[in-house]
Amino acid sequence: MTGASETAGQSERGGCVAELAGVHHRYGDVVALDGMDLDVRAGEVLAVLGPNGAGKTTAIALLLGSLPVQRGEVRVFGREPGAAAVRFRRGAMLQSSGVPITLTVSEHLELFSSYYPAPLPLSRLLALAGLEDVAERRFARLSGGQKQRVMFALALAGDPELVFLDEPTTGLDVEARRSLWGEIRALKAAGRTAVLTTHYLEEADALADRIAVLDRGRVVAEGTPAEIKSRAADRRIRCVTSVSREAVFALPGVARAERNGRHLEILAARPEEVLRTLLARDPDLHDLQVTGVGLEDAFLTLIRADGRQEDA
Fold first, then answer.
1. For FRET with 15, which of 42, 229, 235, 273 sits at 20 to 30 Å CA-CA?
2. Number of CB atoms found within 10 A of residue 194's CB
3. Is 216 helix (H, G, I), strand (E, B) or coil?
4. pLDDT tens-digit profile of 158-211?
5. How does 111-139 read in b/e, with b if 16+ C-beta sit within 10 Å?
6. Are strands 235-240 and 263-268 parallel, antiparallel or unpaired?
7. How confident is residue 251, by pLDDT bands cut at 50, 70 and 90?
8. Contacts of 2 (CB under 8 A, 6+ apart)
9. CB neighbours of residue 7 within 10 Å
10. Which residues on adjacent β-strands are paired with residue 239?
């Protein structure tokens, strides 16, 4: 993608393009953000992860300027998020679309592009989102994956430097999801910055330069996918054993124990101790593997640790 915004975007590369600093936000008695600090750096894909109620939606809404700041500071491109100069430089793909179903794909893109001073050409938008073959089809007649592609194209209409992607592949099949991954990677290759919220941890692992894990309105971990995985001390044990799942789960340091066919899969902070106990109880234990955790296991470990700290 090219446009008048490219020079400005390049000048901020490597710096902070958006941030929440000491932000508190409440909905009545419910604390959504509890002194959150979060920064978005130019040229990166930042994945924001967290369980339901962690504060992801509130944080993104504040960065988009759709919620008033109650306490703390929120800045995008050094300005208030709702400023016109900011809106022209960012795009958003949200879960709730509300677009008219009677318009064609081309009509949607032309209408949305008219809101921006220097939008991408229609042909370019159609190509970026892989919509050339359905350009004249009404939105109501599109498949779920095609509708997601339209929302992706709408987010790119203004040739933005910063794009917010809220659960962009929800409901897509594997092929459509991987295709959209390629388009998100192309955004980064073009020098754009993306903030991605997703429940698919495989997606964050595949796309993100950096991950911020949210829980209870705070950032509880931050780093590259490899760094996040390294912060979880747990190891995954996989073996065939006659010891029951319930007995293994009761052992000290075991966070999870699940049957997967003949195998028992165990997540444990002290794998050596668990294995000593298992071998003492089952000398015939075999097909043993001990590996590091993936992003999903690391995520669960970090959230669990935050819960323990809160309860302490």
1. 229
2. 26
3. coil
4. 999 999 999 898 878 888 888 889 989 998 998 999 999 988 888 999 999 999
5. ebbeebeebbebebbbebbbbeebeebeb
6. antiparallel
7. very high
8. 159
9. 8
10. 264
| Residue 64 burial (C-beta neighbours within 10 Å; 0-12, 13-18, 19+) | buried
- pLDDT (tens digit per residue) in 84-112: 999 999 999 987 667 888 999 999 999 99
For 203-219, write each residue's pLDDT tens digit.
999 999 999 999 999 99
Please, which pLDDT band fits residue 297 given cuts at 50, 70 and 90?
A: confident
DSSP of 239-297, one letter per residue? EE-SS-HHHHHTSTTEEEEEEETTEEEEEES-HHHHHHHHHHH-TT-EEEEEEE--HHH
For residues 255 and 279, the answer to whether their CB atoms sit within 8 Å is no
Nearest-angstrom CA–CA distance, 295 and 207: 13
Residues 245, 249: Cα–Cα separation, whole Å: 6
- The percent of the chain in helix, strand and coil, each rounded to the nearest 5, is 40, 30, 35
Q: What is the 3-state secondary structure (H, E, C) of 230-254?
A: HCCCCEEEEEECCCCHHHHHCCCCE
Return the ∠ at Cα 22 (arms to 19 and 28), rounded to 5°.
Answer: 110
Backbone phi, then psi, for 265, in 5-degree steps? -110, 125
Structure tokens at 22: 């000491």
Rounded CA separation 298/276 (Å) = 24
Answer for the pair 184, 177: CB distance below 8 angstroms, yes or no.
no
